[in-house]
Amino acid sequence: MEMPNTSSLDPLMVTLIGIPGLEHVQFWIGFPFCALCMVALLGNVLLLIIIPSESSLHQPMYVFLAVLAANDLGLCASIAPKMLAIFWFSACTMTFDACLTQLFFIHALQGMESGILLAMAFDRYVAICNPLRHSAILTPSVLGQLVGVVAARAVILVSVGPVLLKRLHFFHSTTVAHSYCEHMALVKLAAVDTRINKAFGLFVAFSILGFDMVFVLVSYTLIFQAIFRLPQKEARIKAFNTCTAHIFVFLEFYVLAFFSFFSHRFGHVAPYVHILLSTIYLLVPPALNPIVYGVKTKEIRVRVVRIFLLERGRKKGIIPSGPYFLPTFHESPAHSITTIFGSCGKRREYQS
After folding, report:
1. Which domains are seen in the chain, by residue range?
2. Of 14-23, 36-45, 171-180, 232-241, where does mean pLDDT reach its minimum?
3. Could you count the other beta carbons within 10 Å of the beta carbon of residue 222?
4. Three-class SS of 184-227
5. Angstrom distance (rounded) from CA 321 to CA 29
6. Distance CA 311, CA 11 (A)
7. Closest by alpha carbon to 278, among 113, 107, 150?
8. pTM of the model
9. Which residues contact 33 (CB under 8 A, 6 or more apart)?
10. Which of 3, 167, 190, 343 has a 20 to 30 Å separation from 43 between CA atoms?
């Protein structure tokens, strides 16, 4: 597909071409991306069912995990439908305002994900370095405030980007060489001075991703120092095991994020390589996060097995259907996350 070089004053429509250079195979590329989205959908929905319904999981770590699951669902919903429509049905056009809306949600949810990971690192720091005060520090109100600050920071900072793009009235092309509306991909279309847009994009990236990554590293440096000071080997292993899932998720998110960010602005990689990497960066963490935490958390593993065995028994007619045959759920699966905030203060102390 050729990219027409048509100028436009205040464009009403834009065209996304998908993955430039791979248009002839992107129909097939859509299938693995769709599989990632389905895994993310199933895994994160299961977390949002299991965490509210399992009283032993009403702890700050799992509250943050539930918020992360909801955030990941929103991220997949923001990118996947339009991207798959481009790949499979050549539905490449969308209004300029819709493109800016998608841009806002994608980048705001990215920023929220980074903030949630920082909050989870802080929870691990308190649980291991100051376990006796864990309940007093991470109270339900503090959890709510942390989530609110993370969301407000991402929304406020990212919302300025679409406003700055809206002030660019002249574009040398309305064809976006991407599979979704991304900030720099739109900035590059402008035929006017975009130094403010580029500077603001760097500012947001470093004030969110850079800030969070530095404090995550500081948190884990202090955590490892505390772990290595423990006198017993078994205690050190147990404390380290509580962090392994978090470490994997942090590395997965930040390595992909910064590789995509720097290759887009300063690297010399082929456009299709960058777009594939940036799409993988958005879709892989939502798919892997539930798997990683599910494997590392016994309560989640047990509940998932129960859910699938129950469904299998119903299909075979062994277990009748109906709400009276769900004795393993202590609370309604539809229980809201706000209920968890209210019950966190009643949990047991973390063990170092």
Report:
1. 10-317 (1.20.1070.10)
2. 232-241
3. 14
4. HHHHCCECCCCHHHHHHHHHHHHHHHHHHHHHHHHHHHHHHHHH
5. 39
6. 51
7. 107
8. 0.82
9. 80, 83, 84, 87, 279, 283
10. 343
